[in-house]
Write a structure and sequence with these properties.
The chain has helices at 43-46, 50-56, and strands at residues 7-9, 32-42, 71-72, 85-96, 103-113, 120-123, 133-138, 158-159. With 168 residues, it is mainly beta. The chain has one domain (7-15, 30-165). Strands 1-7-6 form a 3-stranded antiparallel β-sheet, with no helix packed on it.
């Protein structure tokens, strides 16, 4: 993490609100990795289609930043709260269609779940340890709730990851 590029921020302020985050801040997170499979995806939906563009983004001047590498902006359909799921990667597998005519995809979506969330860092106060606590990391120095974090302002971009399975 680049030193002083991000600041600790918290809703309503707090002791470290606006303090630059120093170099080499690291925190151990409890993380669970899991995979969801989407079977029998039509060939054109992934092969350059809407799902592909949603996952990988669009070229410069296009309509979006990729979902890959983003954190969930809304509660996931499986009950995981906003800000706790990171979309790590997709593994596509091209298969022959069930009826033998044409091709289908089997998509393996890889996620990492951190119950504490992905957008906050722990502030260690070297003078008064009682001041330690979790703060959102922000490039602008402004606190945003998870679903409103602007691109390039937080540690990760946020996207509604439930849209990964939306064919429209």
């Amino acid at each position: 993490m680049p030193g002083a590029a991000f600041k600790y921020v918290r809703a309503g302020g707090g002791l470290a609100h606006g303090t630059p985050i120093p170099f080499n801040v690291s925190i151990t997170r409890a993380v669970e990795r899991y995979v969801y499979y989407w079977e029998y995806v039509p060939h054109d939906l992934y092969n350059g289609g809407k799902t592909y563009r949603r996952i990988y983004g669009t070229p410069v001047g296009g309509d979006g930043v990729p979902f890959m590498g983003a954190v969930n902006s809304a509660n996931m359909w499986d009950g995981k709260p906003a800000g706790t799921v990171l979309f790590e990667r997709v593994e596509p597998e091209l298969l022959r269609a069930q009826d033998g005519n044409g091709l289908r995809w089997r998509l393996a979506f890889h996620f990492a779940y951190a119950p504490r969330g992905w957008l906050d860092l722990f502030y260690f106060d070297p003078v008064v340890p009682a001041n330690n606590g979790w703060y959102r990391a922000s490039a602008s120095g402004t606190f945003f709730v998870v679903n409103l974090v602007p691109d390039l302002d937080g540690l990760y971009c946020v996207r509604d990851l439930n849209q990964l399975w939306n064919p429209n």
